[in-house]
Amino acid sequence: MSQHQNESLQSVSNVFSNFVGKLEAEADLRDEIRNTVKEVDRLARELVAGLSAIHSQSHGHKRFAEIVAEANTRFRDVKKSFDLLAAKVPADQYYVFHEHWKFTMHKLVFAAALISFIEHGKLATLSEVAATIGVHADRKQGFHLDLEDYLFGLLSLGSELSRYCVNRVTAGDYKTPEKIFAFLSELGAGFRLLNLKNSDLRRRFDSLKYDEKKVEEVIYDLSVRGLLQKNNEQKQEPGTFRVVDEKTRLSTKDNSPEANSMQE
C-alpha cells in the first residue's frame, strides 16, 4: 500500500473519530435534557390533576383559592426546573431539542390559561403565560414559549371548560355557562383569523368548535327551562338540569300537560 493511500485512510479515520466524540456528547446532552424534562412533565401532570378539583360541585371561593394556591406552588417548582433545563440547552439549539418538552409546554399553557379564565375571566396572553411558567416570551431572548405551543395549550381549554360548564349548572350556578360561552366564542373567533390550513392546529381547532357548540346547547336548555337568571330574578334550585337533544326536547314538549289539553 502506497504512502498516499495510508495518509488517505488515516485522514478518514481522523474525521470519523471526531464524529464519535460529537455524537457521544450530543447523546449525553439529550439524556440530561430528557431527565430534566421528565421532572417538569411530572409537575405539569400534578398541576393538571390538581386543577381538576374545580369540577367539584361543592367547592366555594375559599376552596378555589386553595386550588390556585396549590397550582402556584407547583408553578414555582416548574420555574426552577425550567431554569435547569434552559442552562442545559445551547442558545442556538432550542428547536433541536424542542420535541422533548413541547407536549409538556402544552399542559403548562393549558393550566396557566385555565387559572386565568376562572380567576379573572380573561384570556392569558403569551407573555403572561410565559412569565407564569418561567420562560421568555421572545425567542430572541433564549429559552422561550413557542407560539404554536401556546396555541395548542389554549385549544385544550375547550373540552375542560365545556365540562366545567355542565358541572357548574349541576351545582346550581347558571351564570358561569354564559361567561364560558362568550369566552369560547371569542377564542374561536381569534383562531379563525389565523391561516391554519391543514396543520395539526387546524384539526385541534375543529374540536374547539365542537366544545363551543356543546356549551351553546347548555345555554339553550337553560333558556327554554327559564333558568337563566336576570338581574332581579330569584335563584332557582339546582338539580333540575340535564342536557337533551332536539328530539327529546320536542317529545317532552308534545307530551306536556299543556299540549295534551290543547289536543283534547
Automatic annotation (TrEMBL):
Residues 243-256 have a biased composition (Basic and acidic residues). It is found in: Cytoplasm; Nucleus. Residues 236-264 are annotated as: Disordered. GO terms for molecular function: endonuclease activity; hydrolase activity; metal ion binding; RNA binding; sequence-specific DNA binding; single-stranded DNA binding. GO terms for biological process: RNA metabolic process. One of its GO terms (cellular component) is cytoplasm. Keywords: Cytoplasm, DNA-binding, Endonuclease, Hydrolase, Magnesium, Metal-binding, Nuclease, Nucleus, RNA-binding. Pfam families: Translin. The keyword GTP-binding does not apply. It comes from the Eukaryota. Mg(2+) binds at E160. CDD domains: Translin. Its main location: cytoplasm. The keyword Nuclease applies. InterPro entries: Translin, Translin_C, Translin_fam, Translin_N, Translin_sf. Ring-shaped heterooctamer of six TSN and two TSNAX subunits, DNA/RNA binding occurs inside the ring. Exhibits both single-stranded and double-stranded endoribonuclease activity. May act as an activator of RNA-induced silencing complex (RISC) by facilitating endonucleolytic cleavage of the siRNA passenger strand. Belongs to the translin family. This is Translin. The gene is RvY_06448-1.
